[in-house]
Design a protein that fits this description.
CATH topology of chain A: Alpha-Beta Plaits
Keywords (chain A): Electron transport, Iron, Iron-sulfur, Metal-binding, Transport
Distance between the termini of chain B: 47 Å
CATH topology of the largest domain in chain B: FAD/NAD(P)-binding domain
Oligomer: heterodimer
Structural class of chain A: alpha+beta
Distance between the termini of chain A: 6 Å
CATH class of the largest domain in chain B: Alpha Beta
GO molecular function, one term (chain A): metal ion binding
Shape of chain B: globular
Strand content of chain B: 25-35%
Pfam family, one (chain A): Fer4_15
Number of helices of chain A: 2
Number of domains of chain A: 1
CATH class of chain A: Alpha Beta
Strand order of the largest sheet of chain A: 1-4
InterPro entries (chain A): Fe-S_cluster_ET (IPR051269)
Helix content of chain A: 10-25%
Number of domains of chain B: 3
Radius of gyration of chain A: 10 Å
Largest sheet of chain A: 2 strands, antiparallel
Strand content of chain A: 15-25%
Structural class of chain B: alpha/beta
CATH architecture of the largest domain in chain B: 3-Layer(bba) Sandwich
Largest sheet of chain B: 6 strands, mixed
Chain lengths: ~60, ~400
């Protein structure tokens, strides 16, 4: 699975960082950084939760 | 679960309840009813990107409403009454047809409607922002380039509408009956900061004054607003008035049906309102052990979490599993001008409030709220990372002093 963030939509609410700080990090510049674009399968539930909880619908999961 | 579930409300709570039921093994019929005839959409952009014209309606459709979940949508259909004994709900279609629908389980997610000023019905130029239709109607008038908009109520909706109007270059007068904006939610100190944000962005802010009446003119048989008379004796000329004075809960259809209605549908700590009936979203009032009182939370994230939890409660009831307690940490955000305000927790306005990071003068800070040594809130302005990190302290059961210490390390 690959994490795709639409940075035109992302408004750095940092909800994803609250769910999975190992993958998502909002830094002091207020921008979101994806720390691991290919998280392990064991993270799937947290990734799906991040997709659902993003207030801007900016996160999606690509299967490739 | 293989039975019929009726969900009243196709907004965030209702659609997430439907999605969770289906994905967690509900194989029966799921009927989703909403008085709004639009496909399920997201509300936060209605006062922001939809008003500024950055986004079109297609962009705010909720993903769950577009998924293939085999849901039976009945949109433009209003719930009129429910009979718990007979397990049926009375629905009124857009054409006025009334019919009963049987259910085995029911999700109450009918939400709320925008409160309006008395005697303002039918006056052109007077708006609320709650539905997509409301937002599009206001946007059409903003596009005509009015010289001034008067926004009544400096709560979150009013503040965001004011912000969107300023982004369009329109002059704004923002009227608030309380001495400070958001004082009941954030306390006086932070209310002052929020007031200053409006002033810095060129808004004519009128605090501690109410609305006496709308001034209107009738041209070609159309009564149109031309100004707002305030209780401080002044009158503000306005081509458009936007009213953001809170909501009325959509509970009329539940009256007399055996539910406890007390500023919402009273539920237990698993969102169960009656056997086989759950509530979620703006309308659900539940006991929070975390905050030691009954809560009814009108936040976006609570609507999602509540919809999911309500669905799981029904599934647990059907399977005989132990239900899970619903007691999330309330969290919301509000985007005003170039500031992002986020609050985690549920402080009382009288709680202690300490700025632990940054400065309010720069409108970039984190403040913590405490009741004694109990942490009750984390407020951030343009500090999303800190808010999310400090929010986790609620889960850890950190005290107010521990939270202050932790904040110093971020």
């Amino acid at each position: 699975m690959r994490i795709v963030v639409d940075f035109d939509l992302c408004e750095s609410n940092a909800v994803c960082m609250g769910i999975a700080p190992e993958i998502f990090e909002v830094r002091d510049d207020d921008f979101l950084y994806v720390l691991d674009e290919n998280p392990p399968e064991s993270m799937r539930a947290k990734m799906e939760e991040s997709v659902q909880r993003c207030p801007k619908q900016a996160i999606s999961i690509a299967e490739d | 679960m293989n039975s019929t579930t009726v969900i009243v409300g196709a907004s965030l709570a209702g659609i997430n309840a439907a999605r969770t039921l289906r994905l967690q093994g509900h194989t029966g019929s799921i009927i989703v009813v909403d008085a709004d005839s639009e496909r399920p959409y997201d509300r936060p952009p209605l006062s922001k990107q939809m008003l500024t014209g950055e986004w079109e309606p297609e962009k705010i459709l909720l993903p769950a409403g577009k998924e293939d979940l085999d849901l039976e949508f009945r949109l433009g259909v209003r719930a009129k009454a429910v009979d718990l004994g007979a397990r049926q709900i009375t629905l009124e279609g857009a054409d006025g047809t009334v019919a009963n629908t049987a259910f085995d389980s029911l999700v109450i997610a009918s939400g709320a409607s925008a409160r309006r000023l008395p005697d303002s019905a039918g006056i052109a130029g007077v708006h609320v922002v709650r539905t997509l239709a409301d937002s599009l109607a206001l946007r059409a008038e903003l596009e005509a380039g009015p010289s001034r908009v008067v926004v009544i109520g400096a709560g979150f909706i009013g503040a965001e509408v004011a912000s969107s109007c300023r982004k369009r270059g329109i002059e704004v007068t923002l009227v608030e009956a309380m001495p400070l904006p958001l004082e009941r939610i954030l306390g006086a100190e932070m209310g002052r900061v929020c007031a200053q944000v409006h002033i810095e962005n060129g808004v004519d802010l009128r605090l501690g004054t109410g609305v006496l009446q709308l001034e209107t003119e009738t041209v070609d048989g159309v009564e149109k607003v031309v100004g707002v008379a305030l209780t401080d004796g002044t009158t503000v000329a306005a081509e458009i008035v936007v009213v953001g004075i809170g909501v009325t809960l959509n509970v009329d259809w539940l009256e007399g049906s055996g539910f406890t209605l007390d500023d919402g549908v009273v539920c237990d700590n698993t969102l169960l309102a009656a056997p086989g009936v759950v509530a979620a979203g703006d309308i659900a009032r539940y006991p929070s052990a975390r905050f030691g009182r009954m809560l009814r939370v009108e936040h976006w994230e609570t609507a999602i979490a509540g919809g999911e939890a309500a669905a799981r409660r029904l599934l647990a009831e059907a399977s005989g599993e132990t239900p899970v307690v619903f007691d999330p940490i309330p969290w919301f955000w509000s985007d005003q001008y170039d500031r992002k305000i986020q609050l985690a927790g549920r402080p009382m306005p009288t709680d202690t409030c300490v700025v632990v990071h940054g400065s309010t003068d720069e409108f970039r800070f984190v403040a913590l709220y405490g009741d004694g040594d109990r942490l009750t809130g984390v407020l951030g302005m343009n500090r999303p990372r800190h808010v999310v990190q400090l929010r986790a302290l609620f889960e850890e059961g950190a005290s107010f002093s521990e939270a202050c210490e932790r904040a110093a390390t971020l």
